[in-house]
Amino acid sequence: LPNEASLQSARYHNSFLLDPDEALETAREYSAEKGLPPQSVSPEVGKLLHLLVRSVGAKRVLEIGTLGGYSAIWMGRALPEDGEVITCERNEHHAQVARENIAKAGLEKVVTIMLGSALENLAKLQPGDEPFDFVFIDADKENNLNYLLEAKRLARKGAAIVVDNTVQEGRIADLSIANPRYEGVRKLLAHIKDDPELSATTIATVGDRHWDGFTYILKL
Ligand code: SAM
Known about the structure:
This protein is an alpha/beta fold and 220 residues long.
């Protein structure tokens, strides 16, 4: 996994469901050209984020982990004119490439990059500011629980929170593997189990690189 059949299947479905989009394709290509790791979401997951943002009628979106801005562009495209994506990135080179990709997509007024440690930057945001309607967590997995708690603090009731890479080819569920990145996902799951204000499910996916998945969380 994935095999040629799963890639072919994704391409087949995408050919019906995803409109060709020059800015998004350029963002992926330019990010690769600039040496960024191939860690952005797949086109179909990008489209899912876009549809989810629209489904919850989101105006304010928070992203943790910008990379080259690929997922930020998908979500930015889903917002009304006065909408906003705030996206956190600590790597200056990634942020610079993202800025260029976001500008090429015409979203420089919609997407704001907060450069620096996400936890430090999130601590500066107040719940009294306009709350977030949608949060996408996709950065250092060790901090997943910290990010979830910050997302919960800063999001409105009914907000959706998506955490990426929560399956990792089944390694999260293999407790014989003690890796801080996997522990970060396990802690997240354990917290959700005991938090009456959150309800969630994990969906496994066959991506363009490997078998993984994401966890979809609703703030009740
Ligand atoms: N969401 C992006 C997309 O789909 O296009 C991919 C994000 S990539 C998986 C993770 C990003 O998080 C990297 O660019 C990395 O530099 C950034 N990152 C990792 N730890 C961070 C931290 N503590 N604070 C802010 N950004 C961080």
